Each structure stands twice: as structure tokens, then as C-alpha cells.
Predict the structure.
Amino acid sequence: MNQEILDRLGVITDEEREIINGRTEIDRNRYTEGRDLVIDSKKMLEHGKMISIRPHTRFVHFPKHKHNYIEVIYMCIGETVHYIDGEKVVLKTGELLFLNQHATQEILPAGEKDIGINFIILPEFFDTAFEMMGEEENLLRDFLVGCLCFDPRYASYLHFQVADVLPVQNLVENMVWTLLSDQPNKRSINQVTMGLLFLQLMHYTDKISHTLESFEQKLIFQVLTYIDENYKDGELTELSALLNYNIYWLSRAIKRLTGRTYKELLQVKRLNQASVLLLNTRLSVTDISIAVGYDNTSYFHRIFRNYYGMSPKEYRALNT
């Protein structure tokens, strides 16, 4: 991260100075007015704002707490140790941690050189980002959105180990810079930047870790990730071998947990990818059919029409 930004974020805050001078615990009044330690967005955000940042408070143990907003933590340098719903997560330089509003978090004391940023974000801030991710059905996207928001079936956190992904680092730095600089139109800029960040993160599913408390949740994630990465020729037999599950058991589990068969999930992904190619390339419909895994162009035409209500050519003409 830019050294000027690091220097600004590394300044000892008034709260940290109180801790250095002898305070042994956080000042709860800075975070909430309630008896329970639920950090309140009204304390963290100025009136009318949907997003803000603050440096993570160092030198002190942060006891178990929840948030009534979505928190995103970015580790600028060093590391912090978190316990999220009792599970240990070590956040290292360049990594991102998304917490939903139901997660219980505890943070061990950080040192002076451990500089992290807390993004305090109201859920409605993500509307633009979700629109940018597309209205097309995207199963893996829906899984991530469920994790981020309210669906109790999904993870309470997402840990993106993306320190080596330059576009992600640049986008986070842009958001931090915009918020620190009080730049005009910063809400719109940061909403679009968050959308671009999500689009980038969608390409790095192999760098996501999440809560492991639910076997079913982990299985859904493994199946959807496999389909996302192998939609052209991925087969249930290969997936069952990779996961070391009986193919008949896995087939029934997929149907029970997603409401769709493996074949139906694969078809959704292929058709979504076909729509992307129709709108963003000049490939012929035949070439697109082959590219997404259908050698039989007539069959591809039929299922595309059933799904979108029009032919591939009509879809391209209507949307370009």
C-alpha cells in the first residue's frame, strides 16, 4: 500500500493513547449505548453516510462483539488474529475479511506495526455492486451474497487471501484513498469501486476460506466452485472422485441442498457463460455453443430458448 496512506493510518489515535497510558480495555461508549456489545453503525457512521473507514484499534483485546452493519477488514501491513464464531482467522498483509451482521467476533491485541482498516458499511451500499455483478443467475455469486448478508445457511465470514492479486490491491487502495481524501462524489466512486472489487474477487474462488461449521455449506461451496471452474467438461463422476464421495449419494445431496440436479446446475452456468460471450465477443453462435460445452448446436439453441425465452441471435441483437 502507498506509504503516505500507511503513515496516515499508523498515527496513534486518541483511543490508542488512552490504552498506552493505562486503560486496560476498550471504551465501550465509543462503540455502543446498549448493554450488549453490539457495535452500532450510528456511532461509527456520520448521519447520512453508508460507508466509512477507521483504523483498527491496536494494543488491546477486543472482546466478543457483533455489528449491526457489515464490516470489511483489510490488513494494510502486519497481521491480526480474529475469532469469528469461535473459529480462529489470521488476517495477513493484503488480505480481506468480510463479516456478516450475525457474526460474533473477538480480536487479539495488535502491535504498532499491525495496521488494519475497518470498513463500516450499511447493506444498501452494496446495491450498486450487486447490480454490476449482473442480473443473470449466477450460483456462486448468490452463495457469496448469502454469506455477506442475512441467509443463516451460509458463512458468517469470507476470508479472501488475495495479497498477490494486484487488481484487488489497487481497488482497495483506491477506496481507502477516496475516503481519506474526502473526495467529491466519493459515495458513487466507492460504490462502483466495490462493484469492480466484487467482480475481481469472483475470479479467485480458490483464494476464499470461510466458516467450516457446516458440512452442508462446505459441500455446496465445493460443488459450485467445481462447476464455475469446469463448466465446459466437468462431470459428476470426476467431482465425486475429487471429493471422495459416492456418486449416487453426492447426486442426491446436491439436489437436496440446492433444489437442482448437478446437470441443471451445470446448464445454468453454461447458459450464463454463453450470454456473456454473446454480449462481449463476435464469436458465432456455433462457436459459443462449443465453447460452453455443447457440441450439438441444435440442442444448445433449444435449451437457450427455453431458459431466456429467445434464440441466441435474438438475445445478442436485443442486448447489444
Observations:
- The chain has a mean pLDDT of 88.
- The radius of gyration is 22 Å.
- The chain is about 45% helix and 15% strand.
- The first strand starts at residue 38 and ends at 39.
